[in-house]
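Z., the sequence and structure:
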Amino acid sequence: MKEGWTVCSLRRLLIISLAALTFAAGCGSREERAIASLMKQLKHSDPTVRHQAALSLSQMGEPAAPVLIAALKDPDPIIRSECVFALGLFHPPAALEPLTAALEDGDAEVRSRAADALFGYNDYRTAPPLIKALSDPEASVRSRAAFALGQLKAKEAADALLAAISDADPAVRAHACWASGEIGNREALPALSEAIGDPHFEVRRGAAVALGELKDPLAVAPLIGALQDTDHMVRSLAAASLGSIGEKQAIEPLRKLLQSDDEDEVRRQAEEALKRISASESGDLGPGPRIVK
């Protein structure tokens, strides 16, 4: 038995599983009863039960969407949060506007999950509210909004993301760096060059990726400096970005890295970068480094 799970919780999970099976076995009133049963579980005191109920509702897909959307107005923020989470797993078209409105919810967890849910739509109508969310008082909302804008490649967010590179929260800074690279904002180059020396490794990683995405020769010097970073992922990403840019001045630092670094992945990226620089004269550079949420 999983540590911390009570017999009651396990019984509740069994009920949830049976509700999902009821849904799979038929439709109409059975379907409605299954959805109603799962919606009740969203109010359970055990977060594991609530989470499993939300997953089960998302697996039901479109039939559950109207109930989940309606529950976004529930007075209980826990219910609203779980419903946002569930809708974000299958992205019903009718939920786009209500999820956008949830970015203004009074509960920070609801707003954070709304930002997460929206990036899956890949809809440019979400860009303005996500840009506004970069000014949210809650760091988790700002961070997820920055990531969503990068996924959306929303160029209109350039100024707001540039400002977010200086955010007090490192997760916001990291995602703002990465997103600035995704949208190709060359105006962010000075800020990114400074961010690659940030005290937090997550920020340095985001900056290393972004500088490679910009493919600007002015990014070479800060990236060469990052080859000495204490974090092996920063060194690896910096090497990959240098290969993406393709400037020959990076050859010697990359050779030294290849010969001296203790990490296999760093040496592999250095070797690949050297190959890409050698191939740059033919114009065959291939894709640059990537970063995930």
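The chain has two domains: 1-121, 134-293. Residues 7-25 form the longest helix (19 residues).

Let me know what you think.
H.
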